[in-house]
Specification:
The chain has 167 residues and is of the alpha+beta class. Helix content is 16%, strand content 46%. It has an eight-stranded antiparallel barrel.
Length: 167
């Protein structure tokens, strides 16, 4: 008689984590945030974004982004996780700069994204457009970036609470 023990695999752990985060985010409410790069030199400013959107397949597209800077964007760190329905997920850390547009209505994060996804660890250049309503994740080579994944802004206290509860 064979031993029919099911052994967990990393994908299973990822799916359980994504489902847990999805359950926590279902009741999330959007809150407006301050201007993308309006920070004083003495305090950290964080911008937070959360996406939890049902798809036609019955699954949810989930993404989260938090960027923090204490120097107006010259040195910005953060985290980004993307788990789109029926696609491989990735999550990791961001380090780079945020530069405001001339009118301060939008800004662009430009830096490195150290992430794990599809069973591999990666380091990629990452660009993200920021405004008061959303963050747009950039895809493609520098000079030919397409911004396609919109993550709505969220209150950072709620973001931190949801992340803590999901760990």
């Amino acid at each position: 008689m064979k031993n029919n023990i099911v052994r967990p695999i990393p994908l299973t752990v990822t799916i359980v984590a994504v489902v847990g985060i999805a359950a926590l985010l279902i009741n999330a409410h959007r809150h407006p945030v301050a201007a993308p790069v309006a920070a004083t030199a003495d305090q950290n400013q964080s911008l937070c974004y959360i996406l939890n959107k049902p798809t036609a397949s019955g699954h949810n597209d989930i993404a989260y982004l938090k960027l923090t800077s204490s120097d107006g964007g010259a040195h910005t760190t953060g985290e980004l996780g993307i788990a789109l329905a029926e696609k491989d997920s990735m999550h990791g850390t961001l380090t780079g700069t945020v530069t405001a547009s001339a009118d301060n209505a939008t800004a662009v994060f430009d830096g490195q994204y150290v992430n794990s996804g599809e069973g591999m660890n990666n380091v990629n250049e990452q660009m993200i457009k920021l405004d008061n309503d959303q963050a747009m994740i950039g895809y493609g080579a520098p000079g030919a970036v397409t911004y396609s994944l919109a993550i709505p802004s969220a209150d950072c206290a709620q973001y931190d609470q949801l992340k803590t509860a999901s760990n």
